[in-house]
Design a protein that fits this description.
The protein has five helices and two strands, in the order H-E-H-H-E-H-H. By secondary structure, the chain is mostly helical. A two-stranded parallel sheet has the order 1-2. Helix 1 packs across helix 3. The longest helix is centred in the N-terminal third of the chain and has 11 residues. It is globular and about 40 Å long. The chain binds a DNA duplex (13 and 13 nucleotides) through helix 2, helix 3 and strand 2.
Length: about 100
DNA sequence: CATTTGACTTTGA
DNA sequence: TTCAAAGCCAAAT
C-alpha cells in the first residue's frame, strides 16, 4: 500500500462516528504506532478540507480539545464545542469531552 | 541525504 | 496537585 500515514489517519478520522471522539494516541496505536501520536497530529495539521475531516472529534487523551497551535490559536472555542454538540457529544463542566462515554 | 517542525504523550520534580 | 522537559514518528524543506 503506497498509502501514506496521512491517508490512514484521514481514513480513521473519517470513520469516527458522530458523538464519539478519539485521541491522537489512540489513532496512532490503531495504525501500529503507539508512539506516533505526534505524527497523527501532523497529518491533521495538513487539514484536508476536501475530505471534510471531523478533526474536531479528535481530542487529547485527557478529553480536552486540541490546542491547535496553527494560526496561533483559535478557531473559536465556541465553534469546536458547537461542532461536538452538533454531533451529540456531551461536555463536562471542565470544558472537556466526556470521553468515558465518547471515546471508543 | 540531513535537519527542522509539529493538532501529542508520558514521566519527573 | 501543577508545571516543565524529553521522547517519538513521519513529512516538509
Amino acid at each position: 500500500m503506497d498509502k501514506g500515514f496521512f491517508e490512514q489517519v484521514y481514513d480513521i478520522v473519517a470513520e469516527i462516528p458522530a458523538g464519539k471522539v478519539m485521541s491522537y494516541g489512540q489513532i496512532a496505536e490503531l495504525l501500529g504506532h503507539p508512539r506516533g501520536a505526534r505524527t497523527v497530529g501532523w497529518a491533521m495539521r495538513s487539514c484536508p478540507d476536501e475530505l471534510n475531516l471531523p478533526w474536531h472529534r479528535v481530542v487529547k487523551k485527557d478529553g480536552s480539545l486540541a490546542p491547535y497551535m496553527t494560526l496561533g490559536v483559535n478557531f473559536g472555542d465556541d465553534i469546536r464545542r458547537h461542532l461536538l454538540e452538533e454531533d451529540g457529544v456531551e461536555f463536562l463542566p471542565d470544558g472537556r469531552v466526556d470521553m468515558e462515554q465518547h471515546q471508543l
